[in-house]
Write a structure and sequence with these properties.
Structural class: alpha/beta
Strand content: 15-25%
Number of strands: 9
Oligomer: single chain
CATH topology of the largest domain: Rossmann fold
Length: 332
């Protein structure tokens, strides 16, 4: 008869990749970690300097490799995000560096990027100017620059910690953008005021074809359930005021200043901030926004005129409201 104990739930005497994967997945599942199978495989592959698809080529593990896996696994069991352990996050065709201080890109945001990329590619080359507001890791800006030839893309990030990651990732992917004859820049600035007179993007007013944004949109009083989000994501990237819409309102005005007539704003929101939310939803905010002095002049709109038209909402792959499209009012 065997005796069960703590030693049964550590990598300890396990010597093969198959054994270690089984053990890691079992422990992650018992700890309530989402996608335990994927996380276990990613951790083991990372520790072995290989990929998940090539793990089957591995068999025996060295003691050093087992120790490395155990250290990573212990941190994941403590709900440190997998992307922080790996140092990167995947997004569309790219990987970007992430870590403490910057929001980890989510798969849902790939749909926002896709909509922005399609719009930018549909424009003549001389009009392919885009701005990514609340850029964080910079991934949406990088996706635009590397998937749209002859584009000029500016990433705007306000937070001191996050902008370090923005610049790092833009620099890493600059060669890929150069290959598409695209230009990327980073502005360390507030997305809600960056287009005001005298601010960094004042000179782009009325020229931008696409503004994309994944802003903070969680109401201040709501505490995320997931420990990975609650304990490890920067709060400045999560919370958007009492109703979650403070930053979104500012981003909407910035977009109205920057966009050319007919230009497209693509903005992400929570699944409870879609059309059904009415005035408390992002489509409602954009549809009701009217040009006001003094920013009406810089936006090229008559005071009191709607800032956006053709406001529509889009769902994500789970069928939930996820992002809104709106066109700048005025003659194209």
């Amino acid at each position: 008869m065997t005796t069960s104990g703590p030693e049964d739930f550590t990598i300890g005497g396990r010597s093969t990749v198959r054994d270690v994967l089984f053990d890691a997945e079992h422990r992650l599942r018992n700890a309530g970690v989402p996608s335990p199978s994927v996380d276990a495989a990613e951790i083991v592959a990372f520790a072995l300097d290989t990929t998940r698809g090539r793990l089957f080529l591995q068999e025996e593990l060295s003691e050093e490799q087992k120790v490395h896996i155990e250290r990573l696994l212990t941190r994941r069991l403590a709900r440190v995000p997998l992307q922080h352990l790996l140092g990167t996050a995947a997004f569309r065709y790219l990987d970007v560096a992430v870590g403490p201080g910057v929001f980890i890109p989510r798969p849902e945001t790939e749909l926002l990027a896709e909509a922005a990329i399609r719009e930018l590619n549909a424009r003549p080359a001389e009009e392919r100017i885009a701005v990514d507001l609340c850029s964080g890791s910079g991934i949406v800006a990088i996706a635009l620059a590397t998937e749209c030839e002859d584009s000029t893309v500016c990433a705007v990030e306000w937070d001191d910690d996050a902008v370090v990651w923005t610049r790092r990732n833009v620099e890493t992917h600059q060669a890929a953008a150069d290959a598409r004859r695209s230009r990327m820049t980073v502005e360390h600035a507030d997305a809600t005021t960056v287009a005001e007179p005298g601010q960094a993007l004042d000179g782009l007013a009325g020229t931008v074809a696409v503004v994309a944004s994944n802003p903070p949109y969680i109401p201040n009083q709501m505490v995320p359930r997931e420990p990975e989000v609650r304990d490890h994501e920067p709060h400045v990237a999560l919370f958007g005021g009492e109703d979650g819409l403070d930053v979104i309102r500012g981003v909407a005005v910035t977009a109205a200043r920057l966009l050319r007539p007919g230009g497209l704003l693509v903005i992400e929101h929570a699944d409870v901030q879609g059309v059904d939310a009415g005035p408390a939803g992002v489509p409602g905010v954009l549809a009701s926004l009217r040009a006001e002095d003094p920013w009406a002049v810089s936006a090229g709109l008559p005071a009191g005129a709607p800032a956006f038209v053709d406001v529509v909402d889009r769902i994500d792959l789970n069928g939930l409201p996820r992002f809104t499209l709106a066109r700048k009012a005025g003659l194209r």
